[in-house]
Fold this sequence. Notes:
Layout: H1 2-8, H2 24-29, H3 35-40, H4 45-66, H5 77-92, H6 97-108, H7 114-122, H8 132-139, H9 149-161, H10 170-174, H11 176-180, H12 189-199, H13 207-220, H14 224-236, H15 261-274, H16 295-298, H17 308-316, E1 328-329, H18 336-341, E2 346-347, H19 359-367, H20 371-388, H21 400-417, H22 422-431, H23 441-448, H24 456-473, H25 476-501, H26 506-509, H27 516-540, H28 545-558, H29 561-564, H30 575-582, H31 587-612, H32 624-641, H33 646-649, H34 660-665, H35 684-694
Parallel strand pairs: 1-2
Helix pairs in contact: 4-5, 6-7, 6-8, 7-9, 9-12, 12-14, 13-14, 20-22, 21-23, 23-25, 24-27, 25-27, 25-28, 27-28, 27-30, 28-31
Amino acid sequence: xxxxxxxxxxxxxxxxxxxxxxxxxxxxxxxxxxxxxxxxxxxxxxxxxxxxxxxxxxxxxxxxxxxxxxxxxxxxxxxxxxxxxxxxxxxxxxxxxxxxxxxxxxxxxxxxxxxxxxxxxxxxxxxxxxxxxxxxxxxxxxxxxxxxxxxxxxxxxxxxxxxxxxxxxxxxxxxxxxxxxxxxxxxxxxxxxxxxxxxxxxxxxxxxxxxxxxxxxxxxxxxxxxxxxxxxxxxxxxxxxxxxxxxxxxxxxxxxxxxxxxxxxxxxxxxxxxxxxxxxxxxxxxxxxxxxxxxxxxxxxxxxxxxxxxxxxxxxxxxxxxxxxxxxxxxxxxxxxxxxxxxxxxxxxxxxxxxxxxxxxxxxxxxxxxxxxxxxxxxxxxxxxxxxxxxxxxxxxxxxxxxxxxxxxxxxxxxxxxxxxxxxxxxxxxxxxxxxxxxxxxxxxxxxxxxxxxxxxxxxxxxxxxxxxxxxxxxxxxxxxxxxxxxxxxxxxxxxxxxxxxxxxxxxxxxxxxxxxxxxxxxxxxxxxxxxxxxxxxxxxxxxxxxxxxxxxxxxxxxxxxxxxxxxxxxxxxxxxxxxxxxxxxxxxxxxxxxxxxxxxxxxxxxxxxxxxxxxxxxxxxxxxxxxxxxxxxxxxxxxxxxxxxxxxxxxxxxxxxxxxxxxxxxxxxxxxxxxxxxxxxxxxxxxxxxxxxxxxxxxxxxxxxx
Length: 707
């Protein structure tokens, strides 16, 4: 092997692989220095300590480079010392690019025991980038089986975790077939699928690879990692993958970042604070960096595929440099005009989390309906929500504010795209049974407003059930917040329906396995659910005016569904909502109810006219029960406010009809007029104001003067 020949010449100094990288001595100095100033300024004790650490690290790298024969860790104090130096340096400031070539080759060459190799791999944390050439050189050791299977597995996991730090990936893409061969190993298969998922391009999809994945699936069963890779293959070449795959999975891949998660976040945070180079690469507004969690750092576009020098070179080159290139690095996407010029060969980052805070990439997602983008984003977001949920993960309450920020970013992205993420829907369904209603309340309720359309049975068990339990046992403010969220959810569904109606064809309009009848059923069940919980909530809160406002606000949307949203559906509010509003002591609630009844009449009349002239909108008819229920409510309302005979004429089963003997026992002298437009408790203030203006000198307040 070529690797063996290079090991013999180990006395040569470390080579510089790229022009934009420095050797260990430059890294050791921490940048360029002025020789005159260095002579004048006497080094401080802290700088002397740092200098000593750098010397120790250089000695450690030199030791690992020169070692030839296997060495035992227990009996060699020198090895223990240098290994500890590498670990401490990696945790404190990360390793320079030049160190990876030596340390990777040592870890995979089998010169040391697995205990040493494991510690080396776990300490391979970059300070900036990882040279691709170092990876290619180290991968060659996997061909000769010098290291054990556990080390190979750890190396693949490390490669996945550090994928965004690799400076270039062209040679890794060329090794796609080599990685694919490791799918035979059952232990490595989940992680190799994850790596292939990150590396897959359209040209990577071949018939023989699809057959191999199908054979593995037949052998192992429906494994999520195999389904994820097959889903990506099916997107790129649907004609080659004919099998039906599940639309959604909770988790595609196992987490590979465990040993390096905290260290990566800490080093990324420190590098961002110190280096001005990374500032232009931030997407959107600067985010507070997490002390431990990974999501916040992954919202920053990695500068791995385009170094600082390369960025400067690109600006000086001809503007049509990428007009003939296969892909345009997303790190260089700065303006909307660049997006338009390169929209068909834009290479998105492998870490899809960075898309959430990049307005230009969000525009790209809106314009180019690329299913692979949503597949990758769904995987990353689902994994992140599962790991970072502060009420589902033990000892994570200290990160609640950070999780709130993340949920806010996700919600803003959904608002921008005007559609919800299926991974957020799964997160809500999975976490709501454990939610206390307090942690991240506003963020969770906002996510709820963008739940995609799905079957009622699924929503009933995963959303309506847990939400109703929280709703009934929580405060008045929480009840109002839930009602507001459900109203926005209904509006989003209805807006989606209107957009689909304006599309070119019905087949395109209902591409989410949602027929028109299915949409009507799901919307109807949501309205019925709100009606049920509203009836109970009014009883629990003693018909609170504040709560009644949010309930009636919801029905202001419901009463106009037919005309405003062109959906053949009208559902009347339940009696437990109508009558408390009719008898409310608040004039605003009564006014809302009158407006709602007016809009119901307008929609019902329009529907009846369309039926009579045989212009059936989408061939749906309203049942006679809807008209009957509306007429019953109308009789009660007119009987109360105008004819003063509601107690005699109301025919609704839950209405106001009472025997005259019972009314006389109340002791009210003129009980018939108690709720008309003059004496109604909600309107009596207006009657008094009218009497004062009409007869300013009369202090008797004779209401009979108002006709």
